[in-house]
Specification:
Elements: E1 3-7, E2 10-14, E3 19-20, E4 31-35, E5 41-47, H1 53-67, E6 71-76, E7 85-94, E8 97-108, E9 111-120, H2 121-141
Length: about 140
């Protein structure tokens, strides 16, 4: 039986073996971070500021760069993407593992959603269909 996330008009199902991570007070309550059993995560946030999408991407890239030396960045063209949606894959090494971190930003009027899916590359590949199914649900609700 899948678990359900529902907040600010967005509802999606996700695997029931994913665990919701308790949020720190400074992270606010407009989102959720779900931890995959393999150690990766799916993060969903409502962005309160009306920032330029490129600025959000650069901020995430900078945050990753603070902890990891070399980062590859690749813009994605997803077939099912909404008109005001951008996706970027970041790749970097942690120990000897290649990590994939996909950032997807959706905007409709003043509402901006920031989604991040991250896992070791093999785990990312194994969960990519689940990530896509979640994104599809969010797009339909958006």
């Amino acid at each position: 039986m899948p678990a359900t996330f529902e907040l600010f008009g967005i509802k999606f199902l996700y695997p029931d073996n994913w665990r919701e991570i308790e949020r720190r007070e400074d992270e606010g309550s407009d989102g959720v971070t779900l931890e995959l059993p393999s150690g990766g995560f799916f993060s969903f946030e409502k962005d309160h500021e009306t920032r330029v999408i490129e600025d959000i991407i650069d901020e995430v890239a900078g945050s990753i760069a603070e902890d990891y030396e070399e980062i590859e960045r690749e813009e994605l063209s997803l077939d099912e993407a909404l008109p005001n949606e951008r996706s970027v894959d970041f790749r970097f090494y942690y120990l000897d593992l290649l990590i994939v971190s996909r950032l997807t930003i959706m905007r409709s009027g003043s509402l901006t959603l920031v989604l991040q899916m991250q896992a070791e590359s093999r785990d990312f590949d194994q969960n990519e269909l689940v990530f896509s199914a979640i994104l599809k649900q969010i797009r339909e609700a958006f």
